[in-house]
């Protein structure tokens, strides 16, 4: 009996040790999300002219090689204003490594000069509408950001052209992962769209856009939805996994416009669909006879989310505790 009690104590001590270490891991993860964060006391940064970059003392000169830099800020919004609002500027600017939450939108960018906006490596979460809303802007670059649990949509573009949206994560929105409206010549590539309530990617009255090499999984509705006035879009080399979870699945993609192509015309390669039965074409919902004629047999984006270090740690912890309890049970039987 004493041996059994000793084993119980050892298991409990070991479990306590693991829990304490898990807290340390969580703290390290939280600290690593933002390097050298600035505690910004205001609930919003608002820039309405080039002069505001100077007045607010942001580093840089506003040239392409030396943009104004808004970096390492932590902004807790008031739910009324967006965390960062920039409009009517002509200078180059970079927003990098900021954490923004609880604003009306995480960021709102409107009517800035072509090719001047760079939005990189930010964490934008739990805002009241959009993670980022970009309007009337040409050639913005949005890359390596995390948009998570914003109330409506992760990324919204309206009246935009030539923008590049790449290597972002859009997850857990009650609307869409990304919505673009009245926009053209967008490149949406190497992003992860998962667990959004509506669509992973939604096109509204938008044409001549390219959607490729994205990982699109577990939306409640279509992974990609092209509305009736979205024409001549190209959708290829994406991974579609377990989208359209409402009722009986028709297809993971929907195309209501004209001349939307669901494969790479040069390579004659389409998309990966995890519900593809392995024969013939893959049917796309919406437009009559629309299909992916060259569905792929394996994932292609290279973006399948890996198990996080924290999740792995929890799994190992649980397994070790379980093994300890099993050892106790076996020991009891032998006694």
Write up this protein:
By secondary structure, this protein is an alpha/beta fold. It folds into two domains: 1-32 and 309-335; 36-308, Pectate Lyase C-like (3 Solenoid), CATH 2.160.20. Helices cover 19% and strands 30% of the residues. The protein has helices at 2-32, 50-55, 309-334, and strands at residues 38-39, 45-47, 68-71, 73-76, 84-87, 93-96, 99-101, 107-110, 117-120, 123-125, 130-135, 141-143, 146-148, 153-158, 164-166, 169-171, 178-181, 187-189, 192-194, 201-204, 210-212, 215-217, 224-226, 234-236, 239-241, 253-255, 272-273, 282-283, 285-286, 291-292. Helix 1 (2-32) packs antiparallel against helix 3. The longest helix is centred in the N-terminal third of the chain and has 31 residues, at 2-32.
Summed up:
This protein has 335 residues and is of the alpha/beta class. The protein has three helices and 30 strands. The radius of gyration is 24 Å and the shape is elongated.
């Amino acid at each position: 009996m004493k041996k059994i009690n000793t084993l119980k104590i050892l298991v409990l001590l070991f479990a306590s040790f693991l829990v304490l270490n898990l807290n340390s891991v969580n703290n390290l993860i939280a600290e690593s999300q933002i390097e050298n964060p600035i505690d910004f006391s205001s609930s919003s940064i608002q820039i309405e002219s080039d002069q505001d970059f100077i007045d607010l003392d942001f580093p840089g000169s506003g040239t392409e090689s030396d943009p104004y830099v808004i970096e390492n800020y932590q902004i807790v919004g008031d739910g009324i204003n967006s965390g960062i609002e920039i409009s009517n500027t002509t200078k180059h600017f970079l927003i990098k490594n900021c954490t923004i939450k609880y604003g009306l939108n995480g960021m709102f960018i409107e009517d800035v000069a072509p090719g001047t906006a760079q939005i990189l490596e930010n964490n934008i979460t739990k805002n009241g509408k959009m993670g980022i809303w970009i309007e009337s802007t040409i050639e913005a670059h949005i890359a390596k950001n995390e948009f998570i649990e914003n109330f409506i949509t992760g990324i919204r573009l309206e009246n935009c052209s030539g923008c590049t949206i790449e290597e972002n994560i859009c997850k857990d929105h009650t609307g869409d992962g990304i919505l673009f409206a009245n926009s053209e010549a967008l490149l949406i590539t190497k992003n992860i769209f998962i667990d959004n309530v509506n669509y992973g990617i939604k096109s509204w009255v938008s044409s001549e856009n390219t959607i490729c090499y994205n990982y699109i999984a577990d939306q409640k509705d279509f992974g990609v939805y092209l509305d009736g006035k979205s024409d001549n879009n190209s959708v290829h080399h994406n991974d579609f996994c377990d989208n359209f979870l409402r009722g009986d699945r028709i297809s993971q993609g929907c195309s209501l416009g004209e001349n939307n192509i669901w494969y790479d015309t040069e390579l004659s390669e389409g998309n990966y669909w995890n519900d593809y039965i392995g024969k013939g074409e893959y049917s796309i919902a919406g437009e009559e006879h629309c299909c992916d004629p060259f569905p792929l047999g394996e994932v292609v984006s290279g973006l399948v989310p890996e198990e996080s270090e924290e999740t792995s740690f929890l799994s190992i912890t649980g397994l070790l505790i379980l093994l300890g309890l099993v050892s106790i049970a076996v020991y009891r039987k032998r006694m």
